[in-house]
Amino acid sequence: MVTGSNQIWAPWTVDDIHSKADLGRYRIRGMSTHQKVTHFDDLTFLSTGLTRFPLEGYKEQCNTQVELGGLNASNPLVIDTPIYITGMSWGALSANAKTALGKGASMVGTASCTGDGGMLPAEREVSDKLIYQVLPSRYGSNPNHMATAQAIEIVVGQGAKPGTGGLLMGVKVKDEVAISRDLPPGVDQRSPARHPDWLGPDDLAIKIEQLREATDWKVPIHVKLGACRVKNDVKLAAKAGADAIVIDSMVAGTGASAEILLDHSGIPTVPAIVLAREALKEIGLYRKVSLIASGGIRSGADVAKALALGADACAIGIAALIALNCNRDIPEADFEKEIGLPAGACNRCHTGKCPVGIATQDPELVKRLDPDEGAERVANFLNSMTMELALLTRSLGKGDVKSLEPEDLAALTIEASAMAQIPLVGTEKVFGM
Amino acid sequence: MVSLDAGELTTRELNRKIKDLAEKGDAEIVITNPAAKHNVAVGVRNKCSISIEGSVGYYAASQLDGPEITIDGNAGWALGENLMSGKISLSRSAGASVAASMRGGEIFIGGSSGARAGIGMKGGTLIVGGDSGFLTGFMMQKGRIIVCGDLGDAAGDSMYEGTIYVGGEVGSLGADAMFDEITEDELIGLWNELEQKGITEKPKFRKIISEKKLYHYDTLERLERTLI
């Protein structure tokens, strides 16, 4: 007799069926996938010993500055740390959260990104380096705003919900957000998945030229892809003229998504980076077209591993929100009462009832996030990650994060070996090769 | 008045010259030999007058705020994309996605327009003298589309707000689009507006608006119900 709990009809599966039977539609939530997938924890660094000498871990100089999108832009995006804040909309997030993210990024010499709601003036004001997203919805799209940006990012797909558009429940489409997006207040906004003015990669090439003309060829044009058919998508984006490609994996976050897409589409970050790197190599554009990885980046170690696998930089979303106090039991909040879940387990961003004032448009809840204090926390977190990254880099005997390479890594599992295309620890074998 | 020969300039040089002239204020620019180039007159954000003598490719007169542009010819995809303010007048026909995500101003098409005219439109007025293709007004949010001729299938699909006026036949209505009553005053207003564009016929316009049945999810989860 087999004992133990039922694996097929687990309690959460039963609850899921009950919920759908009540609801009559797909379920929606925020945060990221519940799937357990191969991630950066399945890789380890092979630091120095006798075969290599380390740099002094705590003091010796280590360059963390990177340049992104220098292929065509006269003013490439130069950031002092290879970590920036990804696009998250004003609407999904409060104005205080957007301002804190922009200000915090500026405090450490890096960039933030607008998101699917247009450019918030307060965010522009505090952001030294702002990436302006061009999304299928074009909410708030304004050439005057775009002209002030330090980079443009065409969003083809999002890792959390590839193949579909943004989602903003009506409770968050308050008057100001509705005006900015030209939407009726309170509408459950389901953004388009396709761009209104181009369809395939040949059109994208003309679109990229248009954005270059609109911005006088000054700033880089990024293309953001949800990580699915990575090799071909990356090649097509590069061929269309992208200066940088953002590959956003299935573990990336969101303020709202159909749960079925979160958990059942896309590929993890580790193989996404490797496939993108190989695609660029095959067309001779590796290290010419910048590669930016996003999805589940939590620490300096994750950044170091992403860079070693071939990325030029990383973009963070949820980690930055957690730095802002997402899922923290702050004194003003009562998670159980206000959201029905304990602090640390909340993924109810889409309800607009965020107890810490981040993913809400409720003026009373927004007050719980002080943008200046939030900016300090974001800056501290970015500094911490950058120090961790530099510490690991020095431990590998390197004085520049751009020198990190696959040879610095080993895989802890067979799956990670196959996905990262690096040897399994204790062997010289790369599985799947 | 300044004349620029597009045949002698790269797109980048042409747009730079247009912007330099426009920034000086009240410029009158004539562009000759456009030869269906893509991205002609992109990103001009000053008031000025631009006359393009010939057909243009994709994204002509896009990302604009202020200029008045006349084009004597046809246009490729996405003419007037993201227009903020100003006027664009095209003598012949436009390809797909004319006025995509337009936010203000006016676009007039003397001939017909392709698929997805006024897609994601957020304001302003698009007037089409001839017919317009399928998915006209797809996911339209605000503004007006006036089509004197016929509309293709799925007209006004998933539109949030705004109005489509159609003078001819409609292939089919899109999801969540419906016909609405048009008033006599509205009709006379449209005819007067068209007369100013040299259109003297008086089509018996019908009006398409959003049925607003797709505004909200029908149901909320147990947890959400206690919250929203």
Task: Considering the chains and any ligands shown, give keywords for the structure.
heterodimer, A: 433 residues, alpha/beta, TIM Barrel, two-stranded antiparallel ribbon, B: 228 residues, 2 domains, 11-stranded mixed beta sheet, 3 helices
Write the layout of secondary structure elements.
The complex is a heterodimer of chains A (433) and B (228).
Chain A: H1 11-23, E1 28-31, E2 43-45, E3 66-68, E4 77-79, E5 83-85, H2 95-107, E6 112-113, H3 121-126, E7 130-134, H4 143-146, E8 151-155, E9 167-168, H5 175-181, E10 189-190, H6 201-214, E11 221-226, H7 230-239, E12 244-248, E13 254-258, H8 259-264, H9 269-282, E14 290-294, H10 300-309, E15 313-316, H11 318-323, H12 335-338, H13 363-366, H14 371-395, E16 409-411, H15 414-420
Helix pairs in contact in A: 2-14, 7-9, 10-14
Chain B: E1 2-5, H1 11-23, E2 27-32, E3 48-53, E4 68-72, E5 87-90, E6 106-109, E7 122-128, E8 142-147, E9 163-166, E10 177-180, H2 184-195, E11 206-210, H3 222-225
Parallel strand pairs in B: 1-2, 2-3, 3-4, 4-5, 5-6, 6-7, 7-8, 8-9
Antiparallel strand pairs in B: 9-11, 10-11
How would you concisely characterize the structure shown here?
The complex is a heterodimer of chains A (433) and B (228). By secondary structure, chain A is α/β, with parallel strands linked by helices.
Describe this structure in words.
With 433 residues, chain A is of the alpha/beta class. Chain A has a single domain, classed as Aldolase class I (TIM Barrel, Alpha-Beta Barrel), CATH 3.20.20. Chain A has 15 helices and 16 strands. Chain A has helices spanning 11-23, 95-107, 121-126, 143-146, 175-181, 201-214, 230-239, 259-264, 269-282, 300-309, 318-323, 335-338, 363-366, 371-395, 414-420; strands spanning 28-31, 43-45, 66-68, 77-79, 83-85, 112-113, 130-134, 151-155, 167-168, 189-190, 221-226, 244-248, 254-258, 290-294, 313-316, 409-411. In chain A, the strands form five sheets. Chain A has an eight-stranded parallel beta sheet with strand order 5-15-14-12-11-8-7-6. In chain A, strand 3 and strand 4 (77-79) form a beta hairpin. Chain B is globular and about 60 Å long. Chain B is of the alpha/beta class. The model of chain B has no long low-confidence stretch (mean pLDDT 96). Chain B folds into two domains: 1-67, no CATH class; 93-216, no CATH class. The interface between A and B is large, with 46 and 50 residues.
